[in-house]
Amino acid sequence: MESKKYLEDISEIKNMMSRSSRFISLSGISGVLAGVYALIGAAFAHVRLQQYSLIDPMEYYKRNSAPIETGLVVDLFAIAIVVMLAALVTGTILSIKKAKKSEEKIWNASSRRLVINFFLPLLVGGIFCLVLIQYHLSALVASTTLVFYGLACINASKYTLGDVRYMGIAFVLFGLASTQFLGYGLYFWAIGFGLFHIFYGTLMYFKYDRK
Predict the structure, then answer these.
(1) Are 156 and 191 a contacting pair, CB within 8 Å?
(2) Is 103 left (phi over 0), alpha (psi -120 to 50) or beta?
(3) What is d(CA 88, CA 117) in angstroms, rounded to the nearest whole number?
(4) How far apart are the C-alpha atoms of 54 and 63, rounded to whole Å?
(5) What is the pLDDT of residues 44-75, one digit of tens each?
(6) Residue 185: which of 151, 131, 147 has the closest Cα?
(7) How far are the Cα atoms of 27, 45, 166, 182 from residue 194, in angstroms, in the given order?
(8) Distance from C-alpha of 182 to C-alpha of 60, rounded to nearest angstrom
(9) What is the C-alpha separation between 187 and 165, in angstroms, rounded?
(10) 149 touches 122 (CB < 8 A)
């Protein structure tokens, strides 16, 4: 009996130490919704690319070395920003709600480190994508966003749930694989940011949120 109580005390101490060093109020539902937003954004991008006859992979590949129309670049960036903002707002609201429920502070040292370590690789990746567009290498933009997003997840995972690391690794590998299929970037982008997030969010919901 005393041995069981001792193990329970050890477990509780480990949980307290983990809570103090990691932000654990990420919501699984917000991951699912982020995936849904990404799929909607991919559908809008698909329509826009069709208007420029770029959705056919071979046509897209052939036009890769040619400058892309400024209007199309602006539209695709606008779609990406709207998707990202919708995912961030939803994730923030649901994380605040979960943090209140578990009596955890939403903005503390752990969450600050999480945000900094997540957005730093993402910012570098965004700048690198602009460089790719500048040199007419737009076929690599989708792959680059997948790889840098994966690196951002890996970099931030030590300050939140460990499962984020595995999702990041999956994104990096998937992004590297997509570099071998130039012209199919939108499909890889939709599967990565859409289906990966829905799968991960569902997994996190059943693993943590339903407790």
Answers:
(1) no
(2) left
(3) 16
(4) 8
(5) 999 888 887 666 665 655 555 556 677 888 88
(6) 147
(7) 16, 13, 16, 19
(8) 8
(9) 23
(10) yes
pLDDT tens-place string over residues 5-48: 656 665 555 555 555 557 777 889 999 999 999 999 999 999 88
Q: How far apart are CA 182 and CA 158, in angstroms?
A: 33
106 exposure class (CB count in 10 Å sphere: 0-12, 13-18, 19+): middle
**Which ranges constitute the DSSP H helices of the chain?**
2-21, 28-51, 57-62, 70-101, 109-134, 141-156, 163-178, 185-189, 197-204
Q: What type of residue sits at position 3?
A: S
Q: Which amino acid is at 10?
A: I
Tokens representing 17 are 């130490």
109-134 vs 141-156: helix axis angle to the nearest 10? Answer: 160
Burial of residue 166 (number of CB atoms within 10 Å: 0-12, 13-18, 19+): middle
With vertex at residue 143, the alpha carbon angle to CA 138 and CA 147, rounded to the nearest 5 degrees, is 135
Residue-wise pLDDT tens digits, 174-194: 999 999 998 888 999 999 999
In sign, the C-alpha dihedral spanning 148, 149, 150, 153 is: positive
> By CB neighbour count within 10 A (0-12 exposed, 13-18 middle, 19+ buried), where does 31 fall?
buried
User: What sign does the CA torsion over 31, 171, 125, 99 have?
Assistant: positive
